[in-house]
Amino acid sequence: MSADRPPLRLPEPVAWLLAQLAAAGHAAYVVGGCVRDSLLGRTPGDWDVCTSALPDETRAVFAGHKLILTGLKHGTVTVVLQGRPYEITTFRVEGGYTDHRHPDAVRFVPRVEDDLARRDFTVNAMAWSPDTGLVDCFGGRADLAAGVIRCVGRPDARFAEDALRILRAVRFAAQLDLAVDPDTAAAAERLRDTVQNVSAERIFAELDRLLQSPAAGRVLAQYGGILAGAIPEIAPCIGCGQQGRWHCFDVWQHTAAAVGAVGQENAPGALRTLRWTMLLHDMAKPLCRTVGPDGAAHFPGHNQRGARLADSILRRLKAPNALRQEVASLVAVHDGPLPPDDPAALRLLARRGEGWLAKLCAVKRADLDAHAQNEAVAARRAEVDAFEARMHALARTGCYTLARLKVGGGDALAAGIRPGPAVGDALHALLEAVMDGRLPNDREVLLAALRTQAEAD
Questions:
Q1: pLDDT, position 1
Q2: DSSP E strand stretches across 114-247
Q3: Measured between alpha carbons, how far is residue 101 from residues 20, 44, 231, 316, 368 in Å?
Q4: CA separation (Å) from 275 to 8, 22, 262, 267, 331?
Q5: What pLDDT score does 373 carry?
Q6: Three-state secondary structure call for residue 85
Q7: What are the Cα distances from residue 134, in Å, to 30, 112, 119, 146, 176?
Q8: pTM of this structure
Q9: Are the C-beta atoms of 13 and 3 separated by less than 8 Å?
Q10: What ranges make up the beta strands (E) of 212-302?
Q11: How far apart are the C-alpha atoms of 120 and 169, rounded to whole Å?
Q12: pLDDT at 152 (0 to 100)
């Protein structure tokens, strides 16, 4: 990272906040992630300000503006400018962390250096102001240049204070495509079980952000032992052998490669679903593992058992219901056969929809891309591609819903079908015949079939 990088470009409201605090005689800096991202050439999502001003002094400086005071006991005053909130926090140090998550007490201090010393990682422990420039007491800028996530001070102490930092270390590595410093990683793995002191919602949020990050696959492969603190079911996957004709990795390394095989080009919602599916798709394999007479590992029933396990894990993490249900449905069939013909494909379209089937194809491709690369795997991948192309064609032109049938309820009544449930029964029978190819989706042919059915009744 160049030493002559120009000063941080502050948004106008942030520069104004710093100027107002400085004019009132207080030191003020932007701090944390916004400094880190600016040094990386990224656009920060949020701008946090820290200051020597005590909370009441901050309130006095911005008395004419809308203030949010919910964080006051921790020294945070939120100023709303142009409809957007900006957090301003007094320099502070923190007391013990009895619950491994929240400080028992905070104490305000006059120096920014003391405030930076309490922060989690060196890359997040930097502050900047127009007057003093960069304040970097712990080598955060050098660690960014070296591509390293490193704790401020002793890693064991940092993680013992707040167990969520264990997951944050891995998440930042995935998000910023960095490595975790070996001492920091070792401490994180030693203390991984303390992650269970963190709320399920916070664990899910960190894992969710990690999985959607560019370097998720690499980071999972490197730090599965740490992540087992959040999802204990990961531990048996590490070293669970399955190498043979189809596989070249153990279950966990295959899982990591499959997550990485889901490309960032996917829309955010699809990326989220697919990455979670690949994380969980083989999680039940250690529970199902058998060894055949030839010495090869087999995993009978791991699809369905994996779906139940995925559902259980996501329930435990309090994941959104829609995500949980879709992931479990994909895990249940990820290794199953694709529909063999058009009627079967049309029925699956009717039951699941084009979007779900497209995700299933993406899951199968990611799974296969994390297999041994040989002719047999390539042939399976070609089958997936061919099915997906045919499925999309059927979704455009095929008849697999009553809405696409060339006759409707009024036609059924006019043909003599009795009012009531018999109308729906008649139309569904026609739809089945059309999907099977026994009848064309032709209005005259279908009207004739309705009349024949009415006469038979």
A1: 35
A2: 127-129, 133-135, 148-149, 179-180
A3: 33, 26, 18, 19, 40
A4: 34, 46, 7, 12, 12
A5: 82
A6: strand
A7: 10, 11, 16, 18, 20
A8: 0.90
A9: no
A10: 290-291, 297-298
A11: 9
A12: 96
Cβ count near 113 (within 10 Å): 13
Residues 6+ apart with CB under 8 A from 231: 207, 313, 317
- Residue 273 has which token pair? 């679903």
| pLDDT tens-digit readout, 261-309 | 999 889 989 999 999 999 999 999 999 888 877 777 778 889 999 999 9
Question: CA 156, CA 249: separation in Å to the nearest integer?
Answer: 32
| DSSP one-letter code for 121 | B
Residue ranges for the chain with pLDDT beneath 70: 1-6, 95-105, 243-245
Confidence (pLDDT) at 95: 62
Cα-based distances in Å from 344 to 42, 278, 387, 436: 48, 25, 12, 8
**With the C-alpha atoms ordered 222, 204, 212, 138, is the resulting torsion angle positive or negative?**
negative
Q: What is the phi-psi region of residue 420: left when phi exceeds 0, alpha when psi lies from -120 to 50, beta otherwise?
A: left
Residue ranges of alpha helices (H) inside 317-408 are 321-331, 342-352, 354-369, 375-397
C-alpha of 284 from chain center: 20
Q: Burial code of 258-296, b = ≥16 C-beta within 10 A, e = fewer?
A: bbbbbeeebeeeebbbbbbbbbbbbbbbbebbeeeeeee
* The pLDDT of residue 99: 55
Q: What is the pLDDT of residue 98?
A: 59
Rounded to an integer, what distance in angstroms lies between the CA atom of residue 349 and that of residue 361? 13
Q: How many residues are listed for the chain in this entry?
A: 457
Taking each helix axis from N to C end, the angle separating 342-352 and 354-369, rounded to the nearest 10 degrees, works out to 110
Q: 84-90 and 290-291: which strand pairing?
A: unpaired
Q: What are phi and psi of 73, to 5 degrees?
A: -70, -20
Cβ distance 260 to 210 under 8 Å? no
List the structure tokens of 249: 């990795």
Distance from the first to the final alpha carbon of the chain? 82
What are φ and ψ of residue 201, in 5° steps? -65, -40
- Render the burial of 311-328: b for 16+ CB within 10 Å, e for the rest: bebbeebebeeebbebbb
Chain centre distance of CA 165: 18
| Res 245: pLDDT | 65
Q: Is 406 helix (H, G, I), strand (E, B) or coil?
A: coil
